[in-house]
Design brief:
Length: about 150
């Protein structure tokens, strides 16, 4: 028997999975084909948005400018080979304003961009249309769907 969960309970599970920094697979669209790569995605608060830092010259930025539809997979514990993880589909938005860049700056980024004022440094914000939680329940094939 499947337990019925309240929307806030599902949000809490999602926030627990995406909290902090996570390796994620990001899919963008290149023409009419998917393009997938690893990124470091992070959640910076009480919402369900994810963010990543990157270069304005990156292929993903070009692809997002042409088509903002994205898909992310994150949360799997590779060290222990276990879930839960999420499938996150939605839209991406590129931010290159000084305020957003400074808000999301981390010293680890110095090796790539030196300072948050670097004109090639930007933030990509991922906003969900739909999130599926996989591997959370006792039945590993069951998914929990959340639509914001």
């Amino acid at each position: 028997m499947t337990k019925v969960m309240e929307k806030e309970e599902i949000r809490t599970i999602i926030k627990d999975i995406i909290h902090g920094s996570n390796t994620a697979c990001l899919a963008t669209v290149d023409g009419d084909k998917p393009w997938v790569r690893y990124i470091m995605a992070y959640n910076s608060g009480d919402n369900l948005q994810l963010f990543c830092s990157t270069s304005l010259k990156s292929r993903k930025v070009k692809q997002i400018k042409e088509n903002p539809n994205i898909h992310l997979t994150t949360g799997w514990d590779h060290a222990n080979n276990q879930g839960p993880y999420i499938q996150f589909s939605g839209k991406a938005e590129i931010h290159s304003d000084a305020e957003t860049k400074k808000k999301h700056w981390h010293p680890m980024l110095e090796q790539f961009f030196q300072t948050p004022d670097n004109p090639n440094y930007c933030i990509i914000e991922f906003s969900p249309d739909n999130i599926e939680i996989c591997g959370y329940s006792e039945n590993p094939m069951e998914t929990i769907t959340y639509t914001p």
